[in-house]
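Why Xylose isomerase-like TIM barrel domain-containing protein? Reviewers of the renewal asked for a concrete example.
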Amino acid sequence: MSVSRRNMILGMAAATASTKMFAQTVRACPFRLAVINDEISPDFDHACYVASRDFSLQWIELRSMWNTNISALTSAQIDESRKILGKYNLRVTDLASPLFKTDLPGAPVSKESPHRDKFKADFDYKEQDALLDHLIDLSKQFGTDRIRCFDFWRLDDPKPFRAEMNRKLGEAAEKCAKHNLVLLLENEMACNTGSGEEALAVLNAIPNPAFMLNWDPGNAATFPGNVPYPNAYDALPKNRIGHCHVKNAKRLPNAKWDWEPVDIGIVDWVGQFKALQRDGYKYGVSLETHWRGGGTAEASTRISMKGLKDTLQKANIPC
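Here is what the prediction returned.
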C-alpha cells in the first residue's frame, strides 16, 4: 500500500471517529435544549435558521410566527411551518399556546387582563374548548406531545374560584390524555399560578399524570422574597415537571422587577440545571428571553443563549 493511500485511509478513519465523538457529545445532553421561536424573529424561516445553524439546536418551541399566534395559523401557514422545520431538522418541544389565558367567568375582571401581551392571540372563555380541540390537532401536525396552558388572569383573591379553575384544568388534561398528550401548566405571575408553591398546590389538586408543570423559575423570581431554586424547586414533585422555561430576573424597588440574561439575576441556574440533571429530567429546557437589553429581540436572544450555554458548561452539563 502506498504512503499516500495509507494516509488517506487513516485520515478517513480519524474523520469518522471525530464525527462519532461529536454525535456522542450531542446525544449526551440530557435535555431537549430549545428556544421559543418568536424570541428570535417573527420570520419563522430566519428564526429556525438561527436556532439550528447558529445555536446548534435540534429542538424549538412554537409560539407565534409571521406575527400570528400558533393557534391562529392558516392551513397554508401550517404547511409552510412544517416544511421549514424539516429544512432545518428541528423538532418541536411543545406548543406554547395561550390556552386559558383569559378571565374566568363569574370572577372579578382581573387587573392583568386589559394590558397583558397575549402574543398575537385573543380568545375569550367561550372559545377555550374549541381552542383546545384545535391545539390537539396542531400538536399532531407538528409532532409534539405537549401543549402549554395557564390558569386564567390573576385574581386578588383566587381562593373562592380555585376549585372551578382546577375543574377546568382537570377536564382539559383528561381530554389531552385521551390523545396521549400532556397539558403543561406554566407558572406565570400574571395568572393564578405564579410561584412554585402555588404550582405545587395545583399539581396536588389535579393528580392526572397527563397534567404537568411548565416550570419557569424566572417567573417565580418576580415574587418578592421568592427563591425558585432551591426552595420552590425542592418542594415540587419531580415526575410532574414536563417542560422548563429559561430566563432570569432582577428585583427593583417597590416590589417591581425586570428581566435579565440567563447568567445574570436572581435564579441560580447553575444549581437548577444540576438539580434537573440529578433528578432525571429529560424534557424541554427552552430559552424564553424576554430581556431586551441587547437592543433587538434577536440580539438579546443571542446574548442570553450564550449565557444559557455558559451556565450549562459551569454546571458540567454537555449541551
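The radius of gyration is 21 Å. This is the kind of structural detail the renewal will allow us to pursue systematically.
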